[in-house]
Every structure is written in C-alpha cells, then in structure tokens.
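Q&A log
Question type: sequence-to-structure
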Amino acid sequence: MDTVSLYNIQNIKHILNTHNLTPSKHFGQNYLISSRAIDAICAAADIQKEDCVFEVGPGLGVLTFALLPRAKNVVSFEIEKKLQPYWDQKESTCNTLSVIWGNALKTVPEHIPKKETYKVVANLPYQITSQILRLFLEAEHPPEKMVVMVQKEVADRICAVPGNMSLLSVAVQYLGTPKIITKVPRTAFWPEPKVDSAVLAITHIEKKDVKERDVFFRIVKAGFSSKRKQLWHNLVNGLHIAPEQVKECLQEVTGNTKIRAQELSIAQWKQLAVCLGK
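Response status: OK
Response body:
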C-alpha cells in the first residue's frame, strides 16, 4: 500500500472493512485524502536522511508512507488496536518503521530520545492536540521542530498577537516559534469534519530551566484566570501578592496598570515574571 492509494476513499473503506473498523469520532479518525496537504507537511518538516521522526496518530499511514523514504526512521504512536495486524505487516517489510501501541500521552514520554535530535510530524488527533504539544515542548529533550495538522481555530489561537493572546498562545510562543504554513479545508478529509484545519510549524524550540518555566507558567495561569478582569486583579488573587507590588511591576513592564492578560507580548510576560519574582 502506498501513499497515493490512501488518497482514495474506496481504498480506505476497503481497509477499514477488512479490519472491522469504522471511523471513530472518539479517536478523531478523519482520514487525510489530500496530496497537497501531505506535500505541505513534508516540505515544512524538511526531513533529512539522518532525521528521526515521531508521528502521533498515523491512522492508515498516508503521512507515514510519505515520511519513510525521507527519514532515517519513523516512530508512530497509534491507539487503535484493531489496526495492529495492518501495521504488523507494514513493519515486517520496513525496518525503519516502529509502531508503538497505546495512548500516546502515556507512551510517548518513555520513547523520547535522551540525546538524539528528532522531529515531530503528525496529523494530530484533535482531542489531544494541546496535551501533545505540551508533552513535546516541555520534554526534557524537546524536538528540533514540530510540523502538525491541527484545527484551524487552534492554529489561529496559537499564532495570536498581543490583543488576542491566550494561555495556549503564550505557552507555545514561550517555548517555540509557531507559524501557520497553510490552511487545509475540511474537504481534504474523509469523513469530512465540521471544521477546517491548518498545518502548523513550531521551530526554534527552546529548552527552559524547569524552575524558571514553572514560575513563568504559574504567573501566566494566574493572569489568565479571569479574562474579564484586569491583569493586576487576577495576579493579586492568584499569586497572593500585594496590589501595590503588582501594579508597580505592570507599570514598569507595560506602562499600563489597567492592562488585560491578552494584551501582553511574550517579552512582556517574561519581564513581568522576573519583576514579580524579585
């Protein structure tokens, strides 16, 4: 089975029927049938012959089989055990493919390399997008790059600018540099989902000091605890710091004591964390 044949809905249906499967909403099984999207993902990932690639949610392998000729090896994490005979057969004929079975949120951490560089390239199951991003970005040894398919709305939130920032956008932009590569319409999938998607690349992923990262996120989470309130109020309540100290730091960092959490840039959040940590 090659990538091209997996763009064909009838072929997909045949494979699923063979393994007594129907697309599962619970596992977010919408099969990508667009060669344009696959090409965009591979181009953005810039896979080299020495690259180790991690993939979460391979499904029937439309992306996997496009990655294998390009990479040194591909490690795919799949939860749908009914597909094990299908993937066992693929693994038996390809020594650069490893399929790890189970919930990726539990199985990925024990397989992340301690020293070897790797990339994450995946059409992510949408229900666990945020958790998977956090798992890799906060790993002891984070990936060199991530190129993932996510819901367009999520990609837009991650790439937001000051004025529209959220806890998600601050978290991702603190740890790396996200960029939307291309939009992918819902018609590029079967069954067709209710939302459009986007290919998101995260580069310049930076390993943070754990203590520094924890302090930063404690402050950011407090800051976003109530979107309707001004930032100083959230920080006072969430961090149990005197209002005078918080307002002094906000004035120093932003020049505005009445600013709201969504209006700060990543640089300002970093400065605020330092100021409040004094």
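Response note: Strands lie at 31-32, 52-56, 73-78, 97-101, 119-123, 145-151, 177-184, 189-190, 197-203.
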